[in-house]
Write a structure and sequence with these properties.
signal, five-stranded antiparallel sheet, mainly beta, DUF1996, DUF1996 domain-containing protein, binds 2-acetamido-2-deoxy-beta-D-glucopyranose
Length: 343
């Protein structure tokens, strides 16, 4: 099934399936990373963050920080989780950097800062049955996927499904790549971040924030591959879609003369191989499991929901780090230098 059909289903309303798909407005963009570098102000590189407003530099897991939120920028108003990724910059020919803004997926227009679309899937995205039983995450659960140091295709191959889609229009979903798109993408560049789906059932986190999770032992989540004995608990597949609005940067005259592409992650990766994402679970009580156990689709999944206007009221968290992160910078915040792709 293709995207056009999914869009059709969304337009029709509520088929009897359970796939959770919703938008979150941007909470804040700054150099904080309570998962990888808790307490470090500023953190090494810039992130864009959505979700509950208790997000801060430390987020001590023993304190169930998301539970302290008084609002969320996500459409499900009982989802105080935090979801974040790095930020994309455009490097101009004269060497200056400008932050690339985001826009929302079609149908979610008006979300502050574009934000991101979040999915919790029981079965592959285009399987409308979504019938498999999955276990929701527990309070204190966190995870990370990707490798900020990956600069080669081989290094990126350790992870499945961290991709880019060069968008010709709002509905483009074809030809995902693991490197940044090499051509001009008229509508923008979508990054898709899909997390592993097998949990060890014990640890809420691990030193590298990944070892407590695993990919299926054979096949993939999409092919219904079984979880390994070491990580026997099948969870939903969490996926982020972030659309980088590259439209103001699409004049080929502004692109590097050597034919390379001009975008670079906030930590200095111009290859795209270091695509990564961070997740801190924060759904209230059993709200997530209840929805996963209900036959529902997208935002027709019951639970408590709020309008985009109300999501936006929670956006604009007061920043902890006072620095310019956007306009024509002489260097990336944190001083990262783009390194050439290694082959
Ligand atoms: C984060 O919030 C928690 C709970 O409110 C608080 O104890 C902690 O000091 C805060 N950390 C920072 C760096 O503001
Ligand atoms: C660098 O190039 C950008 C894009 O062409 C331009 O907007 C900016 O003013 C230039 N900055 C400097 C310092 O030349
Ligand atoms: C996707 O890739 C195929 C095969 O290379 C190509 O024919 C097609 O035009 C591509 N589609 C888009 C939207 O780029």
């Amino acid at each position: 099934m293709h995207w056009t059909t999914l869009t059709g289903l969304l337009a029709l309303g509520a088929p009897a399936t359970a796939l959770i798909r919703f938008q979150c407005s941007q909470l804040v963009v700054e150099r904080l990373d309570p998962l990888v570098t808790p307490g470090e102000v500023p953190s090494p590189h810039v992130h864009q963050i959505v979700g509950g407003n208790s997000f801060n530099a430390t987020m001590d897991p023993s304190k169930d920080m998301p539970g302290e939120s008084t609002c969320t920028t996500c459409q499900f108003s009982e989802d105080f989780s935090n979801y974040w990724t790095a930020v994309l910059y455009f490097k101009a020919r004269n060497g200056t950097y400008k932050r690339v803004p985001q826009h929302s997926n079609a149908g979610f227009e008006g979300a502050t800062g574009g934000g991101m679309t979040v999915y919790y899937m029981q079965d592959p995205l285009y399987d409308t049955k979504q019938a498999s039983k999955v276990t929701a995450f527990k309070p204190g659960f966190r995870m990370f996927v990707g490798d900020v140091n990956a600069r080669t295709k081989q290094e990126a191959a350790r992870f499945r499904q961290l991709t880019y889609t060069c968008m010709d229009n709002a509905g483009s979903r074809e030809n995902e790549t693991v490197a940044f798109p090499a051509r001009v993408c008229p509508y923008g560049i979508m990054t898709s971040v899909r997390f592993p789906t097998c949990w060890d059932g014990v640890n809420l986190d691990s030193p590298n924030h990944m070892a407590h999770m695993s990919y299926p032992e054979s096949g993939t989540f999409e092919s219904g591959g079984p979880c390994p004995a070491s990580h026997p608990v099948r969870t939903s597949q969490v996926m982020y879609e972030v659309i980088w609005d590259t439209r103001q940067f699409n004049d080929p005259a502004d692109w590097p003369a050597d034919g390379s592409q001009p975008f670079v992650w906030s930590f200095g990766d111009p290859s795209g191989y270091a695509n990564h994402g961070d997740y801190v679970f924060g759904w209230k009580d059993n709200a997530l499991q209840n929805i996963l156990d209900t036959k529902c689709y997208a935002t027709s999944c019951g639970g408590k929901q709020q309008s985009i206007a109300d999501m936006n009221k929670c956006a604009g968290l007061k920043k902890t780090v006072d620095e310019d992160i956007g306009e024509r910078l002489q260097q990336l915040p944190g001083g990262h230098m783009p390194e050439p792709e290694r082959r």
